[in-house]
Amino acid sequence: MNVRLEPAPDEDAQLMLAFQQGDETCFEQLFQRYKKPVINFAFRFTGRAEVAEELAQEIFVKCYMARETYRPSARFTTWLFRIARNHCLNEVRRQDYRHRTEPISEERPLAGGASPEAQAQARALERAVQQALAALPESQRTALVLCQLQGMSYEEIAATMETTVSAVKSLLNRGRQTLLKHLEAHHEM
Predict the structure, then answer these.
(1) Residue range of the domain that includes 17
(2) What is the pTM of this model?
């Protein structure tokens, strides 16, 4: 008996559907394509590179295990980042979260030819942005990360967050205003 599937809305969804049918190489392609964006997404939630990499691995394991539940009713990235969002939120809500993690290394290289002073300023700005993001309510932080760092449209963010486009616009507006206030306060220090 042939089961006819609806056409996938994007190439990634087609890869996921092929993976559902048993083609493991398709999942590897998706993993390679979205490994860095998922790590970056997790980093913006946790502020810790090592934890972000661990969370990304866990997110992809969840995707692998949930392959049978995937339906191409929206873009693949909507499904992927919904899983990522829920997993990251669960992680940061854990009571022992702060005690399990370590801060980002101060020794991470920045721009190759930048002076030590410029590198120190860039690190300070990066810390200020990360602290400002961490201080945002979860919904505003999620919307900003999906929009600014993942390049998702308002519609994709709404689907990922299971809310309306107007709610996403409001979250983004409030989040940007709050971020600016935090960064202005940091700049005045």
Answers:
(1) 8-102
(2) 0.61
